[in-house]
Specification:
Strand content: 15-25%
Shape: globular
Number of strands: 6
Order of helices and strands: EEEHEHHHEE
Strand order of the largest sheet: 1-2
Number of domains: 1
């Protein structure tokens, strides 16, 4: 995955866990094509490495194949206090931001649609 390629070696580190430091804001422009195929848990770390991102995708394409079940996803949310109530868990799923059912296309706060004549319009 992308984050594995953008690390700096910390020769002063005392533990193996801190030997490799992520290069936050190292990538000038991250382009994610076919965004509907990318799960949010995979894309999140990549966004942290980039100063800007261009997310392109079709909302009607096939969804990604997730490696995390909904049960495990909810357990992880509660264990790490991302969502502590059922309402918070439901809100994450409704927003398309879960690791077991979301995709990057759903996560965009704003989006633009390009028409066939090449003009953009806010959606």
């Amino acid at each position: 995955m992308l984050p594995a390629f953008f690390n700096a070696y910390n020769w002063r580190a005392t533990t193996n866990a801190s030997r490799y430091l992520p290069l936050y804001d190292f990538i000038d422009l991250l382009i994610i094509d076919e965004a509907g195929q990318v799960a949010p848990d995979i894309a999140g770390a990549s966004f942290a490495l980039a100063k800007k991102a261009l997310v392109v995708g079709d909302t009607l394409q096939i969804e990604p194949v997730w490696g995390v079940t909904k049960h495990v996803d909810v357990g992880n949310m509660r264990k790490h206090q991302v969502a502590t109530s059922t309402a918070e868990v439901d809100a994450i799923f409704d927003a398309g931001m879960s690791a077991s059912s979301g995709n990057v296309n759903e996560d965009r706060p704003t989006s633009q649609q390009i028409s066939k004549v090449g003009r953009t319009r806010n959606v």
